[in-house]
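Changelog-adjacent note: as of this version, every example in the card shows the full chain rather than a window. The one below runs 117 residues end to end.
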Amino acid sequence: MDLESFRTYCLSKKGVEETLPFDEQTLVFKVAGKMFALCNLEDFRGASLKCDPVRALELRADYEEIEGAYHMNKKHWNSVKAVGRVPDVLFMELIDHSYDLVVKGLTKKQRDLLLSM
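Full-length structure tokens:
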């Protein structure tokens, strides 16, 4: 997966905004103000994605390209490398999973607002 494909896929999700809250090179994707994905704009090698803790450990055991995300809570965030054995379809599935986890954690009011968009 390349940066443009990653960006396009993240932005295709309902209610997503892209921001640069940390610096000019860390692109963050949010839904309802909550992060679900981030990557380096200048040197895209993959992305950090939220993940269910049990699944995160399983993915790390199965793929050397998936590890605990740098500067994030490693229990809930994985770093997924864009090269190697991780196929684009799995990368997109992990983006979906991250987005869905964040949406699931929203209040009912926030979810209803998102669904009405």
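Structural remarks: The domain at 3-111 is CATH 3.90.1150.30 (Aspartate Aminotransferase, domain 1).
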